[in-house]
Amino acid sequence: MRSDSLSLGLERTQKPRSSQPWTLLLYVLLVLVCLPFVLPILWMFLSSLKSAQGIFGSPFSLNVDAGLKNFAQIFANYPFARQYLNSLLTLAISVPVTLLLAATAGYAFARMRFPGRDLAFVMTLAAMMVPAELVAIPQFIAFRNLGLANTLVPIMLLQIFSATGALSVFLMRQHFITLPRELEEAGRIDGLGTLGVFRYIMLPLSRPVLATVAIFAVLNSWNDYFNPLIYLNDEAKMTLPLALQRFTDPLGGTYWNLTLAASVLVALPVLLAFLMAQRTFIESLAASGTKG
């Protein structure tokens, strides 16, 4: 018995050693797979610190001759700060409203029974399949007749009621379906109504999915180029995706050093937000499933 236990102990200590080369090889392969995604971002950061001539040298040269001058110039010579605030304003309004509508609509589709519920849900899903370009002209005419052209209001509304909004409703519905009904029954026994059950029981259990919906809504708002291109004419009212195309010289060329510096400032907040919430994002996508 003693010799058998010793042999088992030796086998257990030897197995991790034999697997170490395979683990190292797996890490090397993962690094190689990630390189095509990481290298463009690294090049963008390095090029944002170079002069207009230095960009066309070696792509990954560490000769950052311009330093922070490019960042100072985009704020000094362009209304970039105002455009940044415009994007933050649309984000601050559209994302919370998207979360509120997705959570309430998803709960209604999953837990409440009312006439036309299934038809309304199918129409919500159908909204994801309609190209934005197909309805752009009638939408523009409607907003222009309301006197909302060249304002941020149409941008916010179209970001809320978009394909991303419909996807958010779908994700929330799928999540609420997976929650046991005994939780609702326990809440009603304690005297909670429908809103109370939703507020105090369902929402606290939905934080991972809400985080996923928030990330989708942030990306949809932050990267929206099509709608601002149609509705905004005043340069001071433009959002960041439109601002990136304004760094041009009088001859029609592009100041690539300024464009890349602005691109870093545009990409950095979203990149940091995703890195901080990536675990919640992945877990919620895995948990949402397709039940129901």
TrEMBL record:
Statement: the UniProt record of this protein carries the keyword Membrane:
yes
Query: Any idea where this protein resides?
Result: Cell membrane
Membrane topology (UniProt): Multi-pass membrane protein
Which UniProt keywords are present, listed alphabetically? Cell membrane, Membrane, Transmembrane, Transmembrane helix, Transport
Which residues, by range, are in coiled-coil regions?
A: none
Give TM regions: 21-46, 88-110, 119-141, 153-172, 197-219, 255-275
Q: Which residues form the ABC transmembrane type-1 domain?
A: 84-277
InterPro entries linked to this entry: MetI-like, MetI-like_sf
Alphabetical list of Pfam families matching this protein: BPD_transp_1
What family does the database annotate? Belongs to the binding-protein-dependent transport system permease family.
Put simply, this protein is called L-arabinose transport system permease protein AraQ
Organism annotation: Deinococcus carri
